[in-house]
Write a structure and sequence with these properties.
By secondary structure, the chain is an alpha/beta fold. 38% of the residues lie in helices and 16% in strands. Bound molecules: magnesium ion and zinc ion. The site of magnesium ion has 9 residues, from helix 5.
Length: 426
């Protein structure tokens, strides 16, 4: 079940959603699935989950799911054989076909493969994509675009808009507008104006989103990725749970049912940066979105909720440095992420003050201060070096270990609730 699980899971999800249950590898006849909510924690391995649960001080919503499994995530890529990126892993989840790292729902021969979102549309269902990253980033892109390279986000934005997804919520306004409108498009196109002419309501604040009561909606709340949960301004930027709630409210009006993908996309970014607090609080924000989906499924028993990850990032361990302990209180003191908030404030002369104010760390040794100052002096050569080093100083005190600045090939969790929840796990 483990090595082929993501194929079987994706294939089963497609078949169950389009009403071809007879072809699914179900051990017993499952009730038909009307609605499918797929939640993906990007970079969320078991370590991120455990750390988040301990910091929260109680069970996660994910912990209560009746079906729990694991999935291996390796791509079909001879160069990077055992460790996937989000594009290949997302392609496997969206299409049931494993491909090479960087593939956006194309197979190893660069041919487009049908996605579960496209199958849902063919079955007359409403569709939605919600993320904390740019909406054109790999994980959402694999459901509503096909491209040989994940980095072609200008073209991916056009493809996603052409897919007529009913609800698109996330970041990445920059790839929708040209330079004249502070955007990144080099072809002069204004995709927001084009979306409006296709019938979309465009929103860019939480209040504007709250006012949407129907129809297709495009919500882009930042130029690039949305804020880490630690840094988010709750007055302006909706949380992942709030976006999920609105998406379900809008999509659930379709009598044929809906497919919704929700991504906690920056657990991955925080884990690349070894920012344990940012990773934990984004995992908790993702779990809140899982709670919203679960709440809907409890009231609508024809809804299947599946929660998983595309891969683990960072090799995060709960406990490290040879010690049999973990210090959640260190992470609870965090006032912002290193990447987006603390790094910009650190200078050679204020290392002790900024670390005390934003991380609660007040016991920096003279050597640690010197090394951080050195990293700050080298900022031109290594722009992330100082932030990463400072984040490691916190990890050391929290006893969070890291083994890589990239992804790892470790198996990831799978949780399922609802009709057919058991059917992929045989
Ligand atoms: Mg992602
Ligand atoms: Zn990553």
């Amino acid at each position: 079940m483990r090595s082929k699980f993501s194929f079987i899971l994706a294939l089963f999800l497609v078949l169950s959603l389009v009403g071809l249950g007879a072809g699914a590898p179900a051990a017993e006849a499952a009730k038909p699935v009307k609605n499918l909510i797929l939640l993906i924690g990007d970079g969320m391995g078991f370590g991120q989950l455990t750390a988040a649960r301990i910091v929260k001080g109680e069970s996660l919503y994910m912990d209560g799911f009746p079906v729990v499994g694991t999935a291996s995530t390796y791509p079909n890529d001879p160069q990077e054989k055992w460790v996937t990126d989000s594009a290949a892993a997302g392609t496997a989840l969206a299409t049931g076909v494993k491909s090479y790292n960087a593939a956006i729902s194309v197979d190893v021969n660069r041919k487009p493969v049908k996605t579960i979102l496209e199958a849902a549309q063919e079955a007359g269902k409403a569709t939605g994509l919600v993320t904390t990253t740019r909406i054109t980033h790999a994980t959402p892109a694999v459901f509503a675009a096909h491209h040989v390279n994940r980095d072609a986000e200008q073209e991916i934005a056009v493809d996603m808009l052409n897919h007529n997804v009913d609800v698109l919520l996330g970041g990445g306004k920059g790839y929708f507008v040209p330079a004249a409108q502070k955007g990144k498009r080099t072809d002069g196109r204004d995709l927001i104006a084009e979306a409006r002419s296709k019938g979309y309501t465009f929103v860019e604040t939480k209040d504007e989103l709250n006012k949407v009561t129907g129809g297709k909606v495009l919500g882009l709340f930042k130029s690039s990725h949305l804020s880490y949960e630690l840094d988010r301004d709750p007055a302006r930027e909706p949380s992942l749970a709030e976006m999920t709630r609105k998406a379900i409210e809008l999509l659930s009006r379709d009598p044929d049912g809906f497919f919704l993908m929700v991504e906690g996309g920056r657990i991955d970014h925080a884990s690349h940066a070894h920012d344990a607090a940012a990773a934990v609080y984004d995992t908790l924000a993702f779990d809140e979105a899982v709670g919203v989906a679960l709440d809907f499924a409890l009231r609508n028993p024809d809804t299947l909720v599946v929660v998983t990850a595309d891969h683990e990032t960072g090799g995060l361990s709960v406990g490290g440095y040879g010690q049999y302990n973990f210090k959640p209180e260190v992470l609870k003191a965090a006032k912002g992420s290193f990447e987006d908030v603390i790094a910009a404030k650190l200078t050679e002369s204020n290392v002790k003050e900024v670390m005390a104010q934003y991380t609660g760390v007040t016991d920096l040794s003279a050597e640690e201060v010197k090394a951080l100052q050195e990293a700050l002096r080298n900022k031109a050569k290594d722009p992330y070096g100082a932030a990463n080093f400072a984040a490691e100083l916190v990890s050391k005190r929290a006893l969070v270990g890291w083994t890589s600045s990239g992804h790892t090939g470790a198996d990831v969790p799978v949780f399922a609730f609802g009709p057919a929840a058991n059917s992929g796990v045989t």
